[in-house]
Amino acid sequence: xxxxxxxxxxxxxxxxxxxxxxxxxxxxxxxxxxxxxxxxxxxxxxxxxxxxxxxxxxxxxxxxxxxxxxxxxxxxxxxxxxxxxxxxxxxxxxxxxxxxxxxxxxxxxxxxxxxxxxxxxxxxxxxxxxxxxxxxxxxxxxxxxxxxxxxxxxxxxxxxxxxxxxxxxxxxxxxxxxxxxxxxxxxxxxxxxxxxxxxxxxxxxxxxxxxxxxxxxxxxxxxxxxxxxxxxxxxxxxxxxxxxxxxxxxxxxxxxxxxxxxxxxxxxxxxxxxxx
Amino acid sequence: xxxxxxxxxxxxxxxxxxxxxxxxxxxxxxxxxxxxxxxxxxxxxxxxxxxxxxxxxxxxxxxxxxxxxxxxxxxxxxxxxxxxxxxxxxxxxxxxxxxxxxxxxxxxxxxxxxxxxxxxxxxxxxxxxxxxxxxxxxxxxxxxxxxxxxxxxxxxxxxxxxxxxxxxxxxxxxxxxxxxxxxxxxxxxxxxxxxxxxxxxxxxxxxxxxxxxxxxxxxxxxxxxxxxxxxxxxxxxxxxxxxxxxxxxxxxxxxxxxxxxxxxxxxxxxxxxxxxxxxxxxxxxxxxxxxxxxxxxxxxxxxxxxxxxx
Amino acid sequence: xxxxxxxxxxxxxxxxxxxxxxxxxxxxxxxxxxxxxxxxxxxxxxxxxxxxxxxxxxxxxxxxxxxxxxxxxxxxxxxxxxxxxxxxxxxxxxxxxxxxxxxxxxxxxxxxxxxxxxxxxxxxxxxxxxxxxxxxxxxxxxxxxxxxxxxxxxxxxxxxxxxxxxxxxxxxxxxxxxxxxxxxxxxxxxxxxxxxxxxxxxxxxxxxxxxxxxxxxxxxxxxxxxxxxxxxxxxxxxxxxxxxxxxxxxxxxxxxxxxxxxxxxxxxxxxxxxxxxxxxxxxxxxxxxxxxxxxxxxxxxxxxxxxxxxxxxxxxxxxxxxxxxxxxxxxxxxxxxxxxxxxxxxxxxxxxxxxxxxxxxxxxxxxxxxxxxxxxxxxxxxxxxxxxxxxxxxxxxxxxxxxxxxxxxxxxxxxxxxxxxxxxxxxxxxxxxxxxxxxxxx
Lengths: 276, 310, 442
Known about the structure:
The complex is a heterotrimer of chains A (276), B (310) and C (442). By secondary structure, chain B is an all-alpha fold. Chain B contains 15 helices and 2 strands.
């Protein structure tokens, strides 16, 4: 952070280590995804004898009547809607919780912490959803994902709101900003680095979730991407090449999202300097 | 100002700035409670209420179709579980190893990735890639890589002349192997939280330190480490809770095996749930909740108290 | 002020909810052929497990059924197998949300879904008389029959490589001692005597579970006493033998080198290609063998797990899962579901199944015949069935099967725990389950 000139030796070591530790496993997944079934079953880590990635990807898409396409659409709707709402609601809670002291703070914090610790109770949740008439609906599932994700977001936001000087709030209030203006125009933009983190993490979480959709929105027309992995893996027979091709395919959307936000994090570097 | 930055005000007993502003705020607070209502409603209805209902069922024998109130029998039975003691030990080992490594490696990577090195953006992305893959995907890939005879890891070790162990099949190694994979998958997240923490440290501090002639080592000890404390606490708490509760990766890789040698409390509970022992597994969850709370809350409190003293 | 804040809170919640509803309105469900209700057509949903081979069979069955019943469309829904599947089925039944007709295990797992409360009895259906009596038992609760068979019955024992046997001049063993003597000769010839595949933990249970025929021959009242908490694995010599066998083959060094990590498919490949002589397994593995090594399928034979008395040798039988209709299916859908169930129980369905994938055993439907070209192992199995030398597996006779059995058998089979300690631990596991089921006498 302090030295201006890049450290070449350190850079070289970092590049080499990062490549081996973080990239090689992905290379393995990619190579296996490009093999035929027999070769993939040998678990060899090598260039495939016959590169058939495109063929395998096509096979993965064709399986079960293009269920993967349906799954992609479902997972996208679910993820975008729940993460967007979750982030805004959680930031609002964290903001008030962090800024305003009251006797409710401790119990609320404990309830939030409970959300991280207690696993959701499936059957009672279904009962509640049936009462509300939102069982087996997409918006019901979205609300469930929001409820289960809130704790994590609030905890992260709270930690970082505490690093934003109160003087900023006071200046804005003097300028005549109401609560909504203060929050959405001043605080929320400053939270960008954390928001990026939260968005990416929750996106990965919701995108990769398969238990909640399985119970709260059952049915093959409501399949989500994780469920498609079962098409190639069973108790009795596993097509490793197709399985790994599917893993690759369903990892692409979160990967794209991350690469997109990656630039945001970098730009946050300069924007992040908070003037007190 | 420095005080505001480094302490977590949420648990600070007395806010020094509060009294002066109180009169004005009592009229109309800029931090209205209704901000919490939408989230609170969703959270209460879809999480807290079902969880409370579930708690009742921990006192019953529950098949989902029938229920019979049996008092604390499930709790008694849970404590008689043969795998409980070993499961408890494994849980603690797993949590401490993963949490410790994530805190240390995450911090180191964050400092590295916020320093002036070549290919910084690339390295940042690379370290985060594993976070993006689903547990099932990570589990499948590493189970194959860690295969004792045909896996690539032991293949590579063989080239160097080292006979690698049966990572997931040797009772001595299974739990640690899964812990390593968990760190591999989760350290990117710890790094990003740390980076966000480091990046939110006002640049002026570093400049001031430089003017005073501080080296990069000193900046780290005197600026980054103390000012990134909210980030450290967050990483620590999240990964400790995650580690204590973790079972998804263990389930995907070893199912608690070979035998019971990588069984943790959460996987014992999950197995009870899978076996249809709904009341018993709910009781297990209550106990796990108490265990995690008993470890995490004092830690949380201790960290914030230290913050006040600083 | 109070009023003001709560009003805006409700407003914000409403706006957010409206937003998410608007987003979710374009669910992908409308893409599929799902909820189109063509006039005059009844659509029913059929839920089955998502094993790729099973999905293939299910699709073929649906297609054949729809050809015969043009006024009904069947929509296929899938669920995971194993414990997750058990939970899903129970959850959907208990919340009144089951598919119109569904596939699920028979025997003790069937009993655990409260059939009398949740399922539509079909005792008076025309096809009921055509069912094999043993199968009827495992889909009956109280006085009523609830299910039609989904697939063939299969047998547990040992898959063996016939070429290795011919080459070494070995005879199919009828006692455990003969089996171990064969293993010694096989090892001396440089072939792995027994393949074990603990990478798929469920495969480790066969020595214990498939030994039940021998347990029953030694002590016909075991199942009853075991359910009543009067007989234990650790104290019944015939029952403990299964654990002992696991320990013995490991101790003697008869296992394949990578038994701890090997997968089910590896075991099949080994026994089919002759790198291993024996693989303890259930014959439902035969279809999978066609997937792994199609050329070698007929080099694999089958024999029952040998016990102590050659004269009493016989096979432990696993009945297929069943097709059931939940009580929540009514009116036209109920009629359609019953037609589908009847079709599944018909000889025509047997033909369809045999055409889609190789068959792992005899059908529990009297008017069905096995195709002539079934695999050698299945022919060997039918030999035992025709002699009547069969016993149902314990999980069909008693509601108790300890959930940790597969971990315990992995431990005993890889030398982490002794047979004795394993049997004792399993008894404890069983006790827990019996208590959770609320059985009498525990």
